[in-house]
From TrEMBL:
Name listed for the protein in its UniProt record: 3-dehydroquinate dehydratase
UniProt entry keywords in alphabetical sequence: Amino-acid biosynthesis, Aromatic amino acid biosynthesis, Lyase
Signal peptide coordinates: none
CDD domains in alphabetical order: DHQase_II
Amino acid sequence: MRVLILNGPNLNRLGKREPDAYGTFTLAELEHELEQFAFDHGIELTCSQSNHEGEIIDWLQQAERQDLDGVVLNAGAYTHTSIAIRDAIASINVPVIEVHISNVYKREDFRHHSFIAPVAEGQITGFGKDVYFLGLHALLLRNQRG
């Protein structure tokens, strides 16, 4: 099984940015834990992060060309603003699990709307860094069911 973990804007600031909302772990620490989880579960994992909308779209489109089995996507603020990322997800035949470290529904009103949710396989929000592991687990279950 081959999966892409894709993080959007400002997630490179994990550990420094709003630790009350996002925790004190860094992106490098998170990726290390995800790589260990993936290894233990036979998943070939790639982790990417970008602050640039177009690069995120390119990676989503490449996921289909590379015949990946899924994407776990934390689009950050683009979740609430990017129709272009929404359209990229809708255009590919790769399941995308939307994740958010904080519970976006307990935060500012503008975070309550996701352009991604209607085209994602599912959404996991509010469980800290565990959302990524839950997303991988969801893809594993999906893959086992065929």
